[in-house]
Amino acid sequence: IDVDRDGRVRPPEVVAACEWVCARLRNPDVLLRGSDVLSLDDLDEGNPTGARLREEAQRLLHIQGRPDSDTLTLDDIANRGELLAAMRFNGDGIVTPDTAQDDTVRATLAEIIRTHGSVPDRHKQTPGVDRARVEAFFAEVQLARDWHAQADIGNTVLMPLGEATLAAADATAKVQAKLDDFFARCRVAAFDAQAEAALNPSAKAYDALGAGRLDLQAAPIAELPLAPVTPRCVLPLQGTSLNPAWAEAIASFAARAVTPLLGARSELAEADWHAIGQKLAPLQALMAKRPDNWAAALPLARLEALLQTRDAVLALIREDEEAETHNALLVDLEKLIRLQRDLVVLLENFVSFKAFYHREGAIFQAGTLYLDGRSCELTVQVEDTAKHAVLAGLAKTCLAYCNCTRQGAKMSIVAAFTAGDVDF
Questions:
Q1: Quick one: pLDDT at residue 56?
Q2: CA dist 311 → 55, 137, 305, 308, 314 (Å)
Q3: How far is CA 9 from the centre of its chain?
Q4: What does the pLDDT read at residue 115?
Q5: Which backbone phi and psi does 414 adopt, to 5 degrees?
């Protein structure tokens, strides 16, 4: 009833609740029974809302294995969490790899989780993906696929190694600045032998390295030349004379670019380096437009395979989202049953104070305050005494505010001192 969630039930909200429940029942007199068992025949099928609630109630009874039943209890619907958790689609718009019934789609969902993270499923708390993650994933895949499509594999000038040219260009780009630096140093050393010592690390530089704990991948080691600088202008592609911080990158460069483009060799001359650059030059303009995302590193065939699962993944998301309509109807059914059971009791305590005046104990009474030889039964809890006191004058009654404590628990109340009879 507290639709604005302010912790207060106010008259307009009570009126709205009455109108809401009466609009869904064939005869509002059933509210007087105060039952938590809803008869499907009591739903007003003459309006679309009542008809949809009846259909949803029948659907729930069918799922529970009671298709012939015409009554729904509060327990049937209040404990629907386990039922929804067991269903393939639960309406939260999140699908997990287990939701998919196809291995290929299941693998795509796992890839989306790996690259874009996950959100927990509402009922199972299993990692899954929502529409935002799915759309972002496939947008990046499509962007990468469109870029790959520009690289015509059949064009031997642009792609001398076919699709493998992309891997060769990647491996080359990772070491290009370092190789340019190495061969530039060698050319200067060849120009003047006196420069060789200055172009190689000094003893002082190695002393600084040796003063701390060595890590082969540390920046100070990576900043050293790729190999000892000599007038020969030749880079060893393997062996102990290669800078250990760059050994892995150079090995990848040799396997993906040097060997496929020039043939197997153990060292790389400056002329060889320029030859590789010339063979890969036509691809450089295209590489500059390459999408900066994880998908760009995948081969074209893999990208196209992922895109083939897009419709299936989005269909799963759509089916799960559509199930939310059923969830909303189930919430309305629970609300209807609770109002059928409790609305009249609330009205008698909110409007006419029937239980209070009949000395039956109203739901708003906090207890009885004994003070000054009197028992005050009109006692209610107060969360903010200062705010409550602003309106206290309207009561035209002596009010006593009290802070009650017991075993560490606290409660603030206000009690009305009346003439002692309910008539006053």
A1: 87
A2: 30, 13, 12, 7, 5
A3: 34
A4: 94
A5: -130, 135
